[in-house]
Amino acid sequence: MAKLILNRLSKSFGDGKPAVDDVSVTIREGGFLALLGPSGCGKTTVLRMIAGFEQPTDGAILLGERVLADAGSMVPPERRNMAMVFQSYALWPHMTVAENAGYPLKVRGISGERYRRKVADALATVRLESYAERRPSELSGGQRQRVALARCLVTEPDVVLLDEPLANLDRHLRQEMEETFREFHAMSGATMVYVTHDQSEAMALATDVAVMSEGKLLQIAPPAELYARPEGKLVGGLVGQGAILSVSLPDNAPRSMEWSQLQQVFTETDSTSAIGDILVRPQDVIHDADGIPCRVATILYEGERYALRLTLPDGQVLRAYSREPAAIGSLFPVVIRSAWRL
Ligand code: ADP
Ligand code: MG
C-alpha cells in the first residue's frame, strides 16, 4: 500500500468545458478523503479515473511510485486492487448474503477454507455474521448496503471508492450508515475516497475534504479547518451554516475579525475602503442591546433552540440562534463575536 496521488488531473469529454480541470490531491495511505461538490462538478469522473474506467486527458494517477494512468498509459481496473461501491448496490437476489459477499473471490478462483475465512472476516467487519444464509430480500436497506461493503472488502483492496453510497437512504438510516462507514474504514485500513454532495456527510466521515466546483478543486483540508477557514465564497457557502455579508473593509482587515473590528465595519461606512465578503456563523451572533439594530425576518423552532433570520439595517440577512422566541418584525440587536474574511 502507498499514498494515492492525483497529479494535475484533467478530463475532457468533448469540446466544452473539461469535466475535471487540473485537480491535484494526495491521499495518505489509510486516509479517508471526501470529494464534496454540487451535482455535475466532476466528482464521479474523478472516481472513475481512479478506478480505471476513464483515462485522464491530462495529468497522472499514482499509487506510491506506480503510475496507474496518464494521458498515454492505463493500468486496467482489475490490476489496480481497488474496489468501487456504487449508489445502487446491486446484489444478486438469488444468492445468500455470504454468496454475494464471496462473489469476487469465486470470480478469482479462490475456494475452500481460504474462501470461507475471507468471507467470514468480511461479514464480521460489517457485523453481518449472523445473516450469512439470508437472501437480500430478507434484509433492511442498511443491511443490504453492508453486504455491498463486505463484497468490496473481501478482496482486501488497497483503495475503496464510494460514489454517493448513502444517497438513496432516508436520513435516519444515513446516520446509522455513517457509523458503519467509519468502523469499516478503521477496520479495513484501506485508503478511501468517498464522493458526496452532502456537506454534513463529508464533514462527519472524512479525515480530509476536497471541495470541487465546475471541475476544479477549490480547497482541500481537514473538516474542522474547512469550517473555520474556508477559502472564498463558494466553499464558505457550502460548508456549515452561516451568512455571507458584503461589507466595506479597511485595507488591513485580518482574516479572522472580532467584534471590536466588526463594530467599526458596521457603524462607519467609509467610502474609501474596499468591499469584501465576510462569513458569520450563527453561533457567533449574540443578542445584545448595544449591538447592531437588526430585525427578525423569520423564526424556526428547532427543538433545542430557535433559528432566526435577521435583517441588518442595510437589508442583508444574518443567521442567529436564540433560546427564546422572538416576534417577526421585532427589533433584535446583535453583536457579532467573530467573522471570517473570505
Ligand atoms: P458529479 O459526479 O459531480 O455529479 P460527473 O463527474 O458525473 O459529476 O460529471 C461532470 C461533467 O461531465 C458533467 O457535465 C457531465 O455531464 C459530464 N460527463 C460525465 N461523464 C460523461 C461522459 N461519459 N460523456 C460526456 N460527458 C460526461
Ligand atoms: Mg456523480
UniProtKB/TrEMBL annotation:
Key words of the record: ATP-binding, Nucleotide-binding, Transport
Segments forming domain ABC transporter: 4-239
GO MF terms, alphabetically ordered: ABC-type transporter activity; ATP binding; ATP hydrolysis activity
Annotated compartments: Cell inner membrane
Gene Ontology cellular component list: ATP-binding cassette (ABC) transporter complex
Gene3D superfamilies from the UniProt entry: P-loop containing nucleotide triphosphate hydrolases
Membrane topology: Peripheral membrane protein
Domain of life: Bacteria
Record family assignment: Belongs to the ABC transporter superfamily.
Protein name, as recorded: ABC transporter ATP-binding protein
Protein source organism: Agrobacterium bohemicum
